[in-house]
Amino acid sequence: MGFSRRTLSILSLIAAIFAFENRASAQSVDAGNQRADVARTQTQTAPTVNEEGGSIPSTPNDADLGEQEILKRAQAYQAFTAAASIPIYWTSNVLLSRANEQGDWIEAPAAGLYYQPRITNNLYGLVDVRDQQFYYNRFDNLDFGDFAVDVGFNLVIPDLDNLILRAQYTYDRLTEKDSFDAFFQNHAIILNGELPVRIGRAQQLAFGASATISMRSIPETPRRNDYEGYIGYTLVLTRALTVNAAGRLVVRDYYHQNSRVDFNEIGAVTATYNFNRFISATALGTVAANQSNQSIFDYKVANVGGAFSLAVKF
What is the CA 277 to chain-centroid distance, rounded? Predict the structure, then answer.
């Protein structure tokens, strides 16, 4: 398998033109995939569960990172969550370019339905369907959608300090603006381990590592595996206000780009105010730097903005 290349045919000139078109198309898809990575990092807030019905951070960027591990509520476990949010933020490097950086505002409405059944006291399933659209202010030709389906399991091991293990299949489909036409599709397996460490009642650390293994993508050229380590910190200031900070180091190993390997560093800070158990507002900011063994892919970017979210458990 691999992204198709034209071979020499009747005229070498025609073959050269076809080869150029293939490379341009591959680079365009790869750039779109990288923009989607940064955009998702900025807005990702997927809910997760633990054995007592609270939240477990699935990534260091979750808006509720560890919050309900610290302040647990005595309530019946509810397996379904319907969620919607409207993030709006400014990015400093909309094209993720090495030079001539240009900024823009992005609006990224999202909605998802999550089902997390309790299988045993410590084992939970996960099935979710989610969709998010990204609309740029000045660079509206970059608008795209992100549709995803996840199926997996979460295991909490109390005897190992509540170590959390996750295994998940993810289908991710990047689409053209306001359509379901895909310009990139990826099937991946995600393996994750995370150790929460409480510091009193109002603080928590989380240490984690994960691997995202791509099994197949269309087209193949942007296909890669991600290997990540992260640390997260949560401070509960009041029952309504929580502050989170996280740092991530990611190694991205590409299958079909001449042994390309990227090293990605990401820092994130969020402050979330819960008006009630349904509605919240979040101020968020991220910075990221990408260093590649192919320097054309180096970039730095900063994002800052906010989001209003609605989540209903049932």
Answer: 24
**Contacting residues for 246 by C-beta, under 8 A, at least 6 apart:** 60, 61, 65, 230, 231, 232, 233, 267, 268, 269
Count of residues in the chain:
314
pLDDT value of residue 9: 37
Spans of the chain, pLDDT less than 70: 1-75
The residue whose two tokens read 């989380």 is: 206
Helices (H) and strands (E) in the chain, counts: 2, 13
Q: Give the domains, in start order, of the chain with CATH numbers.
A: 12-313 (2.40.160.40)
CA distance 143 to 188: 24
Helix (H) or strand (E) holding 104: strand 104-107
Element spanning 202, H or E: none
* End-to-end Cα spacing for the chain: 44
Find all residues with CB under 8 Å of 218, minimum gap 6, and list them: 182, 184, 185
pTM of the model: 0.80
Helix/strand/coil for 69: helix
Using CA atoms, how far apart are residues 62 and 43, in angstroms rounded to an integer?
9
pLDDT at 167: 97
Residue 131: its pLDDT value, please?
96
Give pLDDT, residue 77: 85
> Sign of dihedral through CA atoms 174, 175, 176, 177?
negative
Q: Which residues pair with 212 in a beta bridge?
A: 190, 226
pLDDT at site 76: 80
Phi, psi of 46 (to 5 degrees): -70, 135
Q: What residue spans of the chain are helical by DSSP H?
A: 12-43, 67-70
What is the per-residue pLDDT for 56? 37
